[in-house]
Amino acid sequence: MEFFSQYSTAWLLGLATALLATGLVAGVLAGLLGVGGGIVIVPVLYHLFTLLGVDESVRMHAAVGTSLATIIPTSILSSRAHEKRGSLDRSLIKRLMPSVVLGVIVGSVASRFLSGASLTAVFASIALLVAINMAFKRDGVAVADGLPGTAGTALLGSGIGGMSTLMGIGGGTLSVPILNALRVPMHTAVGTGAMLGMLISVPGALAFILNGLDVPLRPPLSLGYVNMLGFALIVPATLATTGWGAKLAHSVDARRLRQVFALFLALTAARMFYGLLT
Predict the structure, then answer these.
(1) 17-33 b/e (C-beta count within 10 Å ≥ 16 → b)
(2) In what helix (H) or strand (E) does residue 226 lie, and over which residues does it extend?
(3) H/E element holding 227?
(4) How many separate domains does the chain show?
(5) pLDDT of 23-46, one tens digit each?
């Protein structure tokens, strides 16, 4: 606790408020857009760890690991909510599950050898692509009718699992636009993405805990690369709003919200790239 003694009570209250607000927003977006709360949680934690003076070599790893841990309860609640509304396709999940889990394993191993700067570059690059897709993709545009063959599905699932693990995000961020482009209805894609988030976050978080156990310079109150303070404050707020977001997904035209969120992602990616270059 000596680490926190250097900060005023007002500053620490501001930190706690920021983490709670992050959880609230992440929960709504996880249920509403199926993007996975990690796409919000990772950049916020990254910048908070920067303000706290956490070393750059572990800053992004801690943000990613903590985010994956918070996604576990979020994805469970979100997938249950979508299942009740009939928007969870278990046949899709069964086809994607083996390759998604394989991708998580590959991503977890790769994260152990990536520097903090490299991991930041990965997040910023994919976040920028997601932002472009969110901002400019037209509804109803498809590239194929259903999942590809066995080899194509394996490549697709492993890519979703691997990149989601490296970014600390739920599978929905990548799987929802991909499934929707394969003519999977948006509501079904969102519900299925929530379940994939659970398949990614559980082994992914465990891997980041194990990978960071003996690493120095981590944020205080951390278990491996999972910061327990961030986890404890973000999860309750996220759980409180995920179900509400899932309900909104069935009654709200989210196109305008996607565009606003795309701007947030683009600015976040630009800020990360700027930090890497300066």
Answers:
(1) ebbbebbbbbbbbbbbb
(2) strand 226-227
(3) strand 226-227
(4) 1
(5) 888 878 766 766 667 888 998 899
